[in-house]
Design brief:
- By secondary structure, this protein is α/β, with parallel strands linked by helices.
- Helices cover 42% and strands 18% of the residues.
- It is built from twelve helices and twelve strands.
- The strands form two sheets. A six-stranded antiparallel beta sheet has the order 4-3-6-1-2-5.
- A hairpin with an 8-residue loop joins strand 3 and strand 4.
- The two termini are 24 Å apart.
- The C terminus is likely disordered.
- Bound molecules: protoporphyrin IX containing FE.
- The site of protoporphyrin IX containing FE has 24 residues, from helix 3, helix 4, helix 5 and helix 6.
């Protein structure tokens, strides 16, 4: 239990953290990786370089500090992050390391302003926050291991099939090398892939959504090759998967995780809105809906640049042919000439309000949205303009959670 005085200190220093938060976490990472270079095997270097994880951690610290006397109110967020941590293999013994370095960074950046009293209060508060994460994650580890076909840590999977889905997306069908059962998962969940790349000092871990419905004897991931762009290096893991990993090669996976999942109790119409490779968890959900809820109206709207980068198109079209409950719409922002000639899409340009309103037979639906950050923001605004309640919009975007 924190004393009222400690709580007061923590709350009064939140504004200071908000000003210096990013500087503190930047310094924190420098210190952390200098003292504990082995942690470079867990953290995503690309996110580090772009400063994304710094913001995620800074935001998490503000949120926790603001709610330090009622941490239960941020439990859903702790669980969301806990899924990611469990999937990465973060353990209780990692928390004091992060705590020590975070405190040292606060001291370093704030200088004399960080009095002993303030540092002591933050040390105590960090302990309380860390305990909340550790206990949530302990339950998740137990569940992952106890579940039938489940496992702890990383398990070897053989690539049973590699299938190109578009110019930029390739699917990998993965079966466990030990020949035993695999854990069930909820549509929308992801796995972490741990990859050793020849010539690289550290191993890399990346999360990929499972892109098929559960109940199959394999896991399928559909990976976008991340090409170099201005301000962003090429994706090391995605390129290695595309170029080097072939059928019969081995990938190391942790058990499925994630809380962006289909609410299968719900029977109202369901609408999926996806941008680019963000469609992967939604395709798992879509397949599950048509398999298990044959009377539930479903709409699948997918935005891509054009047919060349539009993955899994024929698979979704086959579903629509087979299941009357399903309506499918493609929006191409940059259709090719052939797309125009063959009428390969339903809408040119981005998804816009009048078009979306027309497509949505009823706003009384449950919406699942996944794609890049800009896409998510645009869809969120459009759905609100259509009168959809926040509680009916389920979202996940790719990359670290930008805000809590
Ligand atoms: C991801 C917060 C402790 C390693 C994250 C994210 C947040 C966060 C907000 C982003 C989640 C997302 O991407 O959806 C925290 C907080 C902690 C804590 C508040 C302490 C109370 C730790 C510890 C470790 C760790 C002890 C291990 C040393 C990671 C890694 C990621 C992550 C590797 C994935 C992101 C990346 O690789 O860039 N954490 N974390 N975290 N966390 Fe933590």
């Amino acid at each position: 239990m924190l004393s009222p005085k400690t709580i007061e200190i923590i709350k009064s220093t939140v504004p200071v953290l908000e000003v210096h938060g990013t500087a503190i976490t930047k310094r924190f990472y420098q210190m952390l990786f200098t003292k504990h270079p082995e942690l470079l095997n867990i953290f995503n270097h690309a996110n580090q370089k772009q400063g994304r994880q710094q913001h995620a951690l800074a935001n998490a610290v503000y949120a926790a500090a603001k709610h330090i006397d009622q941490l239960e109110t941020i439990l859903p967020v702790v669980k969301q992050i806990g899924h990611k941590h469990r999937s990465l293999g973060i353990l209780p013994e990692h928390y004091p390391i992060v705590g020590e370095n975070l405190l040292a960074a606060i001291k370093d950046v704030l200088g004399n302003a960080a009095t002993d009293e303030i540092l002591q209060a933050w040390a105590e508060a960090y302990g309380v926050i860390a305990d909340a994460f550790i206990s949530v994650e302990a339950e998740m580890y137990e569940k992952a291991e106890r579940q039938q076909g489940g496992w702890a840590g990383f398990r070897a999977f053989r690539v049973a099939k590699k299938e190109q889905e578009s110019d930029v997306i390739t699917s990998f069908y993965l079966v466990p090398q030990d020949g035993n059962a695999i854990a069930a998962y909820e549509p929308g969940q992801y796995v972490s892939v741990k990859m050793e790349i020849p010539g690289e000092k550290n191993v890399h871990i990346r999360q990929y959504s499972l892109s098929d419905s559960p109940g199959k004897p394999y896991y399928r991931i559909s990976v976008k090759r991340v090409d170099e762009e201005e301000g962003r290096p090429a994706g090391k893991v995605s390129n290695y998967l595309h170029e080097q990993i072939q059928a019969d090669d081995v990938l190391w996976l942790s058990a499925p995780a994630g809380d962006f999942v289909l609410d299968s109790e719900e029977t109202r119409p369901i609408v999926f809105l996806s941008g680019g490779v963000g469609q992967t968890p939604l395709i798992s959900m879509l397949q599950t809906v048509v398999e298990r809820q044959p009377n539930r109206p479903a709409t699948f709207i997918h935005a891509a640049q054009n047919s060349q980068v539009h993955a899994l198109k024929s698979q979704v079209e086959e579903l629509a042919d087979k299941h009357r409950q399903l309506s499918v719409y493609w929006c191409y922002s940059q259709p090719t000439e052939r797309d125009v000639e063959s009428k390969a899409y339903h809408k040119a340009g981005h998804i816009e309000l009048p078009w979306l309103k027309e497509m949505l037979a009823t706003p009384n639906a449950s919406f699942y949205v996944c794609g890049p950050v800009d896409f998510m923001r645009a869809m969120n605004t459009l759905l609100k303009q259509c009168g959809v309640a926040d509680s009916d919009i389920h979202v996940e975007f790719f990359g670290p959670a930008a805000s809590l």
